[in-house]
Design goal:
about 250 residues, two-stranded antiparallel ribbon, 10 strands, binds zinc ion
């Protein structure tokens, strides 16, 4: 028997991507030698993933289609983040002319899908009591307001790597402020946090306040060196980050 949709619980599921298929496809078109890198926590798996990860047991066609609106928004705007980051110094904060509401919706929808998934890759990605609220945000209509989740965006830059080649699937992180989730799509890193301490990262509360997206705020991103990111540390430990052109 086919599984029922994790959101509406009414319709049978279809194959749904965790990170939009178009992110992976668009990235592959940038060069024939490029591969999507994915990291997963704990099991320390580092994979080259050509077509992304999909799960046939999380969402029905209707619900996946609604989430697809947020996916399309990101695919259409991902270059905007990199244009803003060009010629800027690391750790600079930049204002980005994007639909903040759509950014929140996209970030939450990726974590929501990973949380619904029973694939072993996402074993530690669980929204627990916030799962239903995350689903409402991910599938919300155009006029809904989201004040609850904390969402921050960093654009990863590097002299040595084309950061757009990196897709990192969601991982759970723990800081003094509690649990949050991080994923990176084409070099744009999203942090999502529900509940608990309002600071996502532990230092520099002014900084985190500035970067936190509200539906009524102007979006700001931190230009962040890839080499300083948790993803780079993970790849280094796994012996997969020894120099450019390694992939
Ligand atoms: Zn559904």
């Amino acid at each position: 028997m086919a599984a029922l949709c994790g959101y509406c619980k009414k319709e049978p599921t279809i194959e749904a991507h965790i990170i939009p298929k178009a992110v992976v496809r668009g990235f592959r078109q940038r060069g024939p030698d490029r591969k999507t890198m994915a990291i997963f926590p704990e099991r320390a798996v580092v994979s080259n993933i050509q077509n992304g990860i999909f799960d046939p047991n999380i969402l029905c066609q209707t619900c996946d289609g609604k989430i697809g609106q947020a996916d399309r928004w990101f695919v259409e705007h991902l270059d905007t983040f990199h244009e803003v980051a060009r010629d800027r110094q690391a750790y600079e904060i930049a204002k980005v002319a994007i639909d903040t509401r759509a950014a929140i919706q996209f970030a939450v929808s990726v974590i929501y899908r990973a949380s619904l998934s029973k694939l072993h890759h996402f074993d530690d990605v669980s929204l627990g009591p916030y799962l239903m609220r995350a689903g409402e945000i991910a599938l919300a209509s155009d006029h809904a307001d989201f004040d609850e989740p904390i969402v921050m965006i960093n654009t990863l830059i590097s002299d040595a790597y084309d950061t757009r080649q990196f897709v990192f699937y969601p991982v759970r992180c723990r800081g003094k402020g509690g649990t949050y989730f991080v994923f990176t799509a084409s070099g744009v890193q999203f942090l999502v946090k529900f509940g608990g301490n309002r600071n996502v990262i532990d230092q520099g509360s002014n900084f985190t306040q500035l970067l936190r997206l509200h539906t009524d705020s102007v979006a700001s991103v931190c230009i962040y060196p890839f080499e300083d990111s948790a993803e780079a540390q993970f790849l280094s430990r796994a012996g997969r980050l020894r120099g450019p052109q390694r992939y």
